[in-house]
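Final report, Chapter 2: Outcomes

The project's central promise was a pipeline that accepts a single protein chain and returns its three-dimensional structure in a standardized token representation, suitable for archiving and comparison. That pipeline is now operational. To close this chapter, we reproduce one record exactly as it appears in the project archive, with the input sequence first and the structure output second.
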Amino acid sequence: MKVSFIGLGVMGYPMAGHLKNMGYDVTVYNRTIEKAKSWATEFSGNFRETPAVAAEGSDIVFICVGNDDDLRSVIYGESGVLAKMQPGTLIVDHTTTSAEVAREIHAKAKEQGVGFIDAPVSGGQAGAENGVLTVMCGGEQASFDRAQPVMAAFAKFSKLLGPVGAGQLTKMVNQICIAGVVQGVAEGLHFARSAGLDGVEVIEAISKGAAGSWQMDNRHQTMWDGEYDFGFAVDWMRKDLGFALDEARRNGSHLPLTSLVDQFYSEVQALGGSRWDTSSLFARMENVRKPK
């Protein structure tokens, strides 16, 4: 099977690599061409200088870019993937976007007989590198059935959750839950430090019980040590929470904790932490603790 991968960021680069290692004929595109060349050298694959040319002849085009506007820029126009895709082919979009843009692109793709799945992922850079991502999908069953065995190259689990847009809505739920958990861990560690406890030892004790979580297991040490130059950036988390809050206003749901944590992330940005990992909520707590 011939596939294309558009977008070679910290997630897309290893995801495309897993596809190549599984034996697929992979052609890539990246906005920074040098990165595409580097990928092609490392994985003995192909690169092209526009999304359209990269997508030409492919059965499935995978996309993983930054936001709604980035996605539109690689989909539409003479250089966009739809310009060269044939009826019966499929777009699988792993970008975290609004549900609205997923539905918009699905409608445009359908006009020329191209399938579309919105398929945001969870698992972070480590999950992408290790090929163990979780993929939340929205689309038609037939399209999902075609994509699922190919996505297995980089995913430990994928599930169809409803029509186009359902994948993005599920990713919003994911980010809502993460935001609350990270804030909880940050407050717990802040309390531990203020009480004179060793936060690492405290987490060793409580993580084996009902308080345990992925965030606690994987982020408590770096939070305690004040290390944040890795992982999922605050800027991207705010983008994702913005989608969730916008959707909540439309569907009438109430997200008071999510709104508050989003505000806290804006304070982290003000501290210079735009590219820090999301666990940097603890940095905000420590800054609040310190005397002015």
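Archive annotation: The mean pLDDT is 97.
This record, like all others produced under the grant, will remain available to the consortium after the project formally closes.
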